[in-house]
Amino acid sequence: MTRLTLDQKLAILSDAAKYDASCASSGGQKRDSRDGKGLGSVTGSGICHAYTPDGRCISLLKILMTNFCIYDCAYCVNRVSSNVQRARFSPEEVVTLTLEFYRRNYIEGLFLSSGIIRSPDETMTDMVRIARTLRQEHGFRGYIHLKTIPDAAPELIEEAGLYADRLSINVELPTDGAVKSYAPEKDPAQIRKAMADVRLSREARKERSFTGKRPPRFAPAGQSTQMIVGADGADDTTILGTSTRLYSSYRLKRVYYSAFSPIPDSSAALPLIKPPLMREHRLYQADWLLRFYGFELGEIASATKGGNLDLEIDPKLAWALANRQRFPVDVNRADRELLLRIPGVGTKSVGRILATRRHRTLRYEDLRRMGVNLKQARPFLTALDWRPRGLDAADLRARFAPPPEQLQLL
Amino acid sequence: MRRVVLPEIGTFEAWRDEARALLGAGVPPEEVLWHRGAAEADLFAEALPPVRGGAVTVPKGFVDLARLVVWHRDPERFARLYGLLWALGHSRGLLEDRGDPRIDRLRRMAKEVSRDRHKMTAFVRFREIGDPAATRRRFAAWFEPSHYILELTAPFFAKRFGDMDWSIFTPDLTAHFDGFEIRFAPPEARPELPDDAAEELWRTYFRNIFNPARLKIGAMQAEMPKKYWRNLPEAPLIPELIAEAQSRAQAMGEAAPSLPPIRAERITERLRAPEAPAPVGDRDALLSGLAGCRRCPLWQNATQPVAGEGPLDAPLMIVGEQPGDQEDLAGRPFVGPAGQLFDTVAARAGLKRDRAYVTNAVKHFKFAPRGKRRLHQSPNSGEIAHCRWWLDMERQLVRPKLIVAMGASAAESLTGDSRRIGTRRGALEHAPDGTPVMVTWHPSYLLRLPEGARSAAEAAFEADLRRAAALVAQGEGAADTKGA
Predict the structure, then answer these.
(1) pTM confidence score
(2) Chain A closest CA to B212's CA: distance in Å?
(3) Which CATH code is given to the segment(s) B297-483?
(4) Tally of structural domains, chain A
(5) Which residues of chain B have pLDDT under 70?
(6) Pairwise CB contact (< 8 Å): A189 & B163
(7) How does strand B316-320 pair with strand B182-185?
(8) For A280-329, what is each residue's pLDDT tens digit?
(9) Are strands B164-169 and B137-142 parallel, antiparallel or unpaired?
(10) Which of A164, A196, A225 is the last residue of a domain?
């Protein structure tokens, strides 16, 4: 086998990493290198340094340490039974790439993941070594996200959390049953325990010791996970139920939904389909409603069709159409909770409505300036000079949904 | 009419000083003409009277707004800001009015500057211009922002690239950083920056991190508008990536699954080799059996089952309801707030926790998710009955002389009687096999009581534990005498 160049390795190992949706670099502990003794800063809100034509942001250098893997997960391009070309970075190569990219302002930091080679502990040891070298030898103060390996020893995860801003462990698929059938070497129970350990470590290090000293922070940007959507048969209600459980149990910062996407050299176990991008989008919208808009899972589920979100209209509009008796909402009187329920009104607009309302009564045109999407919101609200009509019209949904595709005469 | 000329460097501070003086002098907005000119321009086109009435105060938020708006390319920006400042003198709440057209305009301008600033932090691309082996390496970049944002944005780069020297050239202004301070200089013609080998690696990364099956060109351009492309080394790749995307995705779909490499089978076989047969009859059997328990659906939401802990020859068994949030995470019983209260009271009552086996009637945590919290839910009779299998197995292993049942779920599991605890507390009941069962409060019930009611209930709980400890000591004493 000829030796691969750094460029060839980078091509293979970034190609192998692109199925991980997360590229976020937000939420880290604020720090900088104005003292001239190191390199990098974290501002707290993350920067996307480039966008590829798939509309995804490049914030971090997202690579695999190696794409050799002893596991055989059907949905994964790197599974042991796949014939993709394999490569392996040395820890020094990863460190150099990260620093040189960073110096040229291409990236916010490193998102390192890896196939499992030999044993989970050995793989995790190498990953921790890369993070430690960056932090200690090079004074790197940029962002580090480590994908932890659930079966690795707790001490290694503990050490990883000291260098990384964020740790993540992928639950991979929405149900334990699906993990068992498509990722037979992975153990859902072990994945949960690993997430529980991360939460416990974070909480333990938030408390001050008896001397009042704060211990070093553990993964200050928290933990996240990813679920593949559309590979197994789970419906959206099941998927959102799993997310709800994960958010409440392990205080996750994010659950990423990744539409199952064709991979080179795919397995016979999973048919290749066009990735369900719209479904992925609707799931993110519903996830937001659950976390920031006070929706309960049951409410979102009640507006689905047989457990799946409406692909043509967003889940908030779908809920409003199914609960028309609660509208129109008076923007001059309703409380925050109710304002958040109006389709086309976001959390920011709600804040502006509440602030301005203290001084005067709102009119229709005010709402436009406050960022309300009036095309959607119009039928669902009243203002000083606005009374909607047709809230009970049978064709209200049709006004929002994209027109049906017309048949063409030959 | 007054003419005010602001310098090109330090524009914000100059505007602030001028505006403060004009406002103090009571000069209305329509009498001021604002200009931003060369740095050497005369600041005071017309001498201003001294400020009257002391410091000018403005509502919170105005300064932040002005700090951004002064860098906008709109020639009217200074006048607009001064107009608002003037109006704020009459209506203090104006700034909070998100429906006012003047405020709306200025906020949109601030947003445009802020977005341009953000895009600059994202899209500046440095090239190395010095010796890569030097202790302080040198980099430079050419950037074309939409607004006059270099002065505003330069501190970001100084904080981020503290250990290297850099220069950023823009058509309006130049900034140099040497590790100590940022120096601004008049604009220069676009410099010829040397090629940088890292750009080739960066393009390799850009090409390969792109997933051709998810083409979303609109989403890309919304965030990376074309006006920035000409200074991005990766941008020339975009047309070809888009052109090839569909055929690449299609090729992946049409490719027949290939045969796995030979080594795959060997590795998979080794990994999937059956593990040692399940142990029977001891604590290991309990643990491995519990790990796979599907007797009721509670396992689906929990992290893990929580088995009891303690010596297997303990004369006393303590049974609670179910693991809580902390127990579910740690996989150990009684480590959360209720467990800590139990430990405290038990210590006072002279009950030796390390001589007791502590466990729960139900082994998985039952909860309802609420945002970032999990709300405890009591197990129902069905769940208690299903889980009795495991409690019975623990009782077989430990064979305690006395069991303390804390709370209604434990009492129901052990005695089959689901009456409320209030009427039964402190009495000695019996399990179907005759083992004595003392019924008492659950410590989490005590934690929920209001301050006044709690001390009495806690005293009763302590008395029960004290009595349990005494009963066990008696029993052990009797056993010792019998043995002697």
Answers:
(1) 0.91
(2) 7
(3) 3.40.470.10
(4) 2
(5) 38-55, 274-281, 477-484
(6) no
(7) unpaired
(8) 999 999 999 999 999 999 999 999 988 999 999 999 999 999 999 999 99
(9) parallel
(10) A225
